[in-house]
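Changelog entry

Holo records now carry the ligand SMILES as an explicit input line rather than a separate metadata file. Below, a converted record for NAP, shown in the new format.
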Amino acid sequence: MMHSSDAGAAAVTVIGLGLMGQALAAAFLKDGHPTTVWNRSAAKAEQLVAQGAILADSIGDAVAASPLAIVCVSDYEGVHELLDPLQDLREGRVLVNLTSGTAKQARETADWAARRSIIYLDGAILAIPPAIGTADAVLLYSGPRSAFDAHESTLRSLGAGTTYLGADHGLSSLYDMAMLSVMWSVLNGFLHGVALLGTAQVDAATFAPFVNQGIEAMTEWLTAYADQIDGGEYPATDSTIDTHLAAMGHLIHQSESLGINAELPRFVKSLTDRAVGQGRGDNSYAAMIEQFRAPSA
Ligand SMILES: NC(=O)c1ccc[n+]([C@@H]2O[C@H](COP(=O)([O-])OP(=O)(O)OC[C@H]3O[C@@H](n4cnc5c(N)ncnc54)[C@H](OP(=O)(O)O)[C@@H]3O)[C@@H](O)[C@H]2O)c1
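Structure line, unchanged by the conversion:
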């Protein structure tokens, strides 16, 4: 029997039991939270019920069962399909939406929640399901601080990187999108490099440690560039954009002459050409921020 005074063992509801929802519910159960679950296809609750979860008869019952309800389904359309018909959401209940989407969708859902007196936090998960509940899982939240503070100890069961970003509900989605941009840039650069080296029979596993070391060095540049960007001045203390541009030309020619895809360096060079055309050639690479701030050409 769980006592309401048990710190860190507050009741929680998880709606949506796909790969991610199941991981979320399992992490709550592991930390001793009485966990109510619901999914459109009930069969996905079976394993969790075997671990001690309570399967609600309806989504309404699921939301009513706990002061904190987490929803994690494929998209915001699914969130609204599930939650819009609910008429009797009790006032004061905190709804946390960990479904991926855009900042606009998060802000619109916050307006929807406000019209129904539901206290709403939007969130984003920067982790894969096996990482949920570990030191590696980063989960971001935005919305009313008081709601985050009230449930932080419960939410912390999902990962050590549980972070509150601010009152603007769009922030967690925006951070999520920003990190996706970083992720794909790094992954595509790695894959292009693997393709280049593959022409000399160097395999990806041989290349990977060089990349990992390079990424580590780049974290220092990144910190210095962040200061330049925030300060709005881009003195080239390491390398000018002109120097970068010349190296981009080499990468394109190398890719073409080896018969591999050159679209990625060509795209990067086209942005850089534009920066040079705008008189940024003697700036540091941080000045490329102006290209990303402007709408697409
Ligand atoms: N998996 C990851 O690595 C990962 C990482 C970060 C973020 N996320 C985010 O987490 C969310 C869930 O991902 P997932 O990996 O759990 O996906 P998933 O395994 O495909 O599960 C999707 C879940 O959404 C439910 N669903 C979809 N449309 C619905 C609707 N119209 N009405 C009711 N339920 C609906 C499904 O219910 P049924 O079972 O009934 O189909 C299922 O529970 C996504 O927004 C995803 O971007 C996932």
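Spot-checked after migration. The first strand starts at residue 12 and ends at 15. The pocket of NAP is lined by residues 16-21, 39-41, 44, 72-74, 78, 81-82, 99-100, 125, 128-129 (CB under 6 Å).
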